[in-house]
Amino acid sequence: MSFNTFGHLFRFTTWGESHGEAIGCVVDGVPSNIALSEADIQPWLDKRKPAQSKYTTQRKETDTVKILSGVFEGKTTGTPISLVIFNEDQKSKDYGDIKDKFRPGHADYTYMEKYGIRDYRGGGRSSARETAMRVAAGAIARKVLGKSVLIRGAMVQMGEDIADPENYNWKQVGSNPFWCPDKEAAARWAEQLDAVRKSGSSVGAVIEVVAEGVPVGWGAPIYKKLDADLAGAMMSINAVKGVEIGDGFAAASLHGEDNADRMRGKGGKVQFLSNHAGGILGGISTGQPVVVRFAVKPTSSILTPVETIDTHGKNTTIMTKGRHDPCVGIRAVPVGEAMMACVLADHLLMHRAQQGK
Fold first, then answer.
1. CA dihedral sign of residues 136, 137, 143, 148
2. pLDDT-based confidence at 131, cuts 50/70/90?
3. Around Cβ 245, how many Cβ atoms within 10 Å?
């Protein structure tokens, strides 16, 4: 199986399976002499780890990360940084009843057709367990970017219920289990998701990730557009079915004069009067906040019986037992932040290579 590596200059390769002994990644392209330790990575992993509330899978994983290489005396050496997390709470027996059945909405069928073999225990390589290593790589990417770039993610929609931008307060994001900036929406979602969870079903979500402090000039106008790389990064996250930059699909309903981010000069600098473009024009950052949203489908592993086929092509039904997220969008927030960080770190290094600054 190829294509386990993401990025160009800042790149990482992940390895491991959901129910294997460990998962890990190798991060390459990190400049030397950047202060780095496990303590810089662990807080971001803690944000993503399961069983932090009743609204996420109850699989108990500490997600304790260990740096194996690439750091000496507390600083990066410029060589590949190898990271490992040992799995602690696999319950492979939960999947024994479905080893010969394909879960609708999962990668089971396509994976089997392509490779002729699949690890039915939690999805193996196609499991969202892999995203823990993306978050670890994202933590290193944040160190490359430095403190001038601030990346924040939030869940802004659950099912059909959309958070109100007028109520956004980023300080609220860490105060509720949904990473939601709208306190009132979070309260509604708690009640709604309780009902969904108890019914054995699941619900989708929309995640917004914003990067502030990105200077003008990152990206390229043709085959290395910043927005194209961001879209690909977000689409690579498990269960993501749609991505938009700035106003995204809503821009299709606007007229040109309404969609234009008008500019004025102030103090020798350019000032934008709006940000419909999401901080990117012609594939190049404008200096405004970079805004990305992505849609996450409902979790496919549910307790509600659904029609499917088995590995012999016979019709049957399936009900997925085990520990699953009733709304996988909750834990997608730190993953989206990580992918934003990795793309931006990659483009920072490419920009330096082209501009010499």
1. negative
2. very high
3. 22
